[in-house]
Amino acid sequence: MTKKFRLAGNNQQLDAAINALQDAKAENITIIYGGEDSPVADWIIVCEGNSFVHVRAIADQLRDFFKHELNELPFHEEGQQHNRWILLDYTDIVLNIMLPELRMHYQLEDLWKECDQEKIPTL
User: Fold this and answer.
1) How many whole angstroms separate alpha carbon 72 and alpha carbon 24?
2) I want to staple 65 with a disulfide (CB 3.0 to 4.6 A). Which of 20, 29, 107, 112 is the partner?
3) Which residues contact 80 (CB under 8 A, 6 or more apart)?
4) In the chain, what are the domains?
């Protein structure tokens, strides 16, 4: 059963992506609503993996989920060669899967502090 999240509203794609992240054991998930007028995406998701292998595994699981369950391929991908920060761009949703030290350094949530944000509990 797909759990509903406050910011997701009726966006089934976003709800499904968050649940897939939780299934992949992603940590410290934050949803940022950029809005339809955002030059980047309607939704930005930032989360952490606790190692290079974990970051890669989360990205692989999300890529497979989007491909097989939602019939979508990423518009753009970055970071697979180093597995420190992997970006998956699905146009309306951009996923940032990062090591904790990179997340602290870049502080993406602060770049979007004017936007509505929701922290998602780690399962």
Assistant:
1) 18
2) 20
3) 56, 59, 86
4) 12-110 (3.30.460.10)
Q: How many CB atoms lie within 10 A of CB 117?
A: 15
| CA-angle at 63, arms to 57 and 68, nearest 5° | 125
Read off the tokens for 97.
């899967």
**Beta-carbon neighbour count of residue 87 at 10 Å?**
16
Using only the alpha carbons of the chain, give its radius of gyration. Answer: 13
Helix 52-69 to helix 12-23 angle, to the nearest 10 degrees? 140
Q: Which two tokens stand for residue 32?
A: 């940022």
